[in-house]
Amino acid sequence: MRVYTLFTPSHKGLYEDYFLKTLPDEFELHATELFEQECPTGSFYHEGWDKICYRKVELFVAACEESMGEHFFYCDVDVQFFGNVVDLLVREIGDFDIACQDDVTAYCSGVFVCKASHTTLAMFKAMKRNYNREDQTTLNEHLHMCQHKKLSPAFFTYGRVAARPWSGERFRVPENVLLHHANFVIGVENKKQIMDYTREKNFS
């Protein structure tokens, strides 16, 4: 299965030290490095964040076109893996068009598996035309165009512990986590800290 991601200079360390080092061999990697740091801080909703998120929507369109008739996986680089996930992704999406990580109050655009088809391509193209602030809001406004569902808790985010940004507190990592996405975390250094913590607790 193809896996797509993209990153800017601020997130290159996350890409190299977490995402790439844990990515299972079962994936065919398609990574896009953006050399222009359009969001100077690399932090959620800071200046330029909307521009970076629009690049993600452009990638969704390209990934769908390149994978037509097959499944593809997209995930952000603040993701680490704890085992193989392709078989589970295929089982979980089933006959649906797209299955996204459960972001508690929304469908997460930072981790999803998609069946590349004319239906999903139409949705991604509509997202480009009607882009609204960032990729996740835009995705949730267009999911009605296809059959969609949420992925299981094996695809973990801190938001399932507390629906607010992580501020350094300790928490219990659920059993059988295969992927951890460091969203609900503001700032690259904080993302590294929660990823280290989750890895330690997942294998302790």
What does this protein look like?
The protein is an alpha/beta fold and 204 residues long. The chain is 35% helix and 21% strand. It has one domain (2-77, 84-152): Spore Coat Polysaccharide Biosynthesis Protein SpsA, Chain A, CATH 3.90.550. It has a six-stranded mixed sheet with strand order 2-1-3-6-5-7, with helices on both faces. A three-stranded mixed sheet has the order 4-9-8. β1, α1 and β2 form a beta-alpha-beta unit. The protein is globular. Residues 38-48 have low confidence and may be disordered.
List keywords for this structure.
transferase, 204 residues, Nucleotide-diphossugar_trans, six-stranded mixed β-sheet, Spore Coat Polysaccharide Biosynthesis Protein SpsA, Chain A, single chain, three-stranded mixed β-sheet, alpha/beta, Nucl-diP-sugar_transferase, 6 helices, transferase activity, 35% helix, Nucleotide-diphospho-sugar transferase
